[in-house]
């Protein structure tokens, strides 16, 4: 049970990372813009999380953690702010590649 949160992070990012190199998707080409954006937003939300954890507004069950901390946050929580955005943006990019037709017939601003 100690590795539950870490495994959630790992398996969330595993498939998106592996398929980032798929010849049709080529998501790795977006990394130069993606990683700086994830770092900036990650820092903001990690600071927010640390603050709320110190105020005891929320916390983390040690039964599901490795016990490694970065400041007041478990390492799994810090990784969360990079694994989840990566996976979500990868999924969005896949939808853009696989479903090019505008099924909603949305008029875009030009």
TrEMBL record:
Keyword field: Carotenoid biosynthesis, Isomerase, Membrane, Transmembrane, Transmembrane helix
Taxonomic superkingdom: Bacteria
The keyword Isomerase appears for this protein: yes
InterPro entries found in the cross-reference section: Lycopene_cyclase_dom (IPR017825)
GO term, biological process aspect, one: carotenoid biosynthetic process
Cell compartments where the protein resides: Membrane
Membrane topology (UniProt): Multi-pass membrane protein
A Pfam family matched in the record: Lycopene_cyc
Any one of the GO CC terms: membrane
Single Gene Ontology MF annotation: intramolecular lyase activity
Domain Lycopene cyclase: 4-95
Regions crossing the membrane: 6-22, 34-58, 78-99
The protein's annotated pathway: Carotenoid biosynthesis
Protein name: Lycopene cyclase domain-containing protein
UniProt source species: Mucilaginibacter gotjawali
The organism's taxonomic lineage, starting at the top: Bacteria, Pseudomonadati, Bacteroidota, Sphingobacteriia, Sphingobacteriales
